[in-house]
Specification:
Helix 1 (about 10-25) runs parallel beside helix 2, helix 5 packs parallel to helix 6 (about 150-165) and helix 9 crosses helix 11. The radius of gyration is 19 Å and the shape is globular. About 40% of the residues lie in helices and about 20% in strands. It is of the alpha/beta class and about 325 residues long.
Length: about 325
Amino acid sequence: MKNVFITGGAGYIGSHCVVSLVKNGYNPVILDNFSNSRQTVLKKLKTITNKKIISYKVDLRDKSKLKSIFKKHKCYCVIHCAGFKAVSESIRETIPYFDNNIGSALSLLECMEENNVFKIIFSSSCTVYNENQSLPWKETIKIGNTKNPYATSKYIIERMLMDLAKYNKNWSIRIARYFNAIGNHSSGLIKEETNGVPNFLVPYIVKVAKKELPYLRVFGKNYRTKDGTCIRDFIHVMDLADGHIALLKKINQKKGLKIYNFGTGKGTSVLEVIRAFEKQTGVPISFRFSKKRKGDAAVSYCSAKKALKELKWETKYNLNQAMMDVKKII
C-alpha cells in the first residue's frame, strides 16, 4: 500500500482527500499544524474509513521535524493542501500569508528532494487567473495579475514549481487549480470548520441556519451578472477529493509539470446558492447586502475538459446534492 503524505490533511479539503485515499487503496499520512483545523477530525476520519490514520502535528517550516517524518515513512507522493486560504484575511495579514504559504512550500520541496521523493500534487486556486478573459477559463489562459496576497502566494508557488520541473527532470508535478469547493462528506462527520464569522459562503449560510449568526452578508449586489451577485464555479468537495485520486493514478505516466482545472464548468450566483440551500433544507436564510470586498472577482468558472480527457475525471454531484449533504451538519 503506497504512503501518500497529505499536508493540511485535517483541513476541509485535505480531510475529504483522506477519505478518498483510503477508499482507493492508498495509505494517507497527515501532516498538519492544526492552525486552521481541529484534531477531533482524526477520530471522525477513523469512523468514516474504519482505519486509524497516521498523523503528525508539524509546521512544515520546521525542517528538522519534517525531515524526521520523511525518514520514518517511505513516501510515494505528496498532496500539498496546507496553507492559509482566505482572500480578505490575506489583505489584512499579507506578510504572514507569504511566510506561511511560500515558506511551507519551500521547506516541503527541500525535504522531498533530500529524500528522493519527486512526486507532488499542489493545491492551487482559480484566483491565479487574470480577470476579464473569455469564459470558461482554460488552463492555457493568462495568470499572474493577482488581486490579493492569497492568490499571489499561490501564483508564486506555481512559478516555483514550473521552474523546478523545467530545470530538474526528476520531478513529476501536478497543479490542481481548485474552483469553489462546497459541501461535505455524506456522513456529515467532517465539514468546513470555522471560528467566528466565516470567510466562505456555505459555512456562513450554515451559521445563519443554526442561528449562530443573525444574517448572511452578501458582498455586492451590482456586479454585471444575472442577479447582481458574484458568480462562482461551486464544486462538491468529494468531487474535488476524487480529482486528486485521478491525478495520483496517472502521475507515474509522465514526468514534468501538468496543470488541471477542477470545477463543474458552470457558474452559479451567490443568490442561487442561497435558494438551493433553502430548497433542500427548508431553512430560510436571512441576508443583507453589503459593499463589495476587495479582491473579489465578479465571475469565474472553468473548463474542466482537460481533466475529463486526460484523467477520465468528471463531477458526480450537483449543487442540490451538495446542499443535501450540508443539511446533515445543521
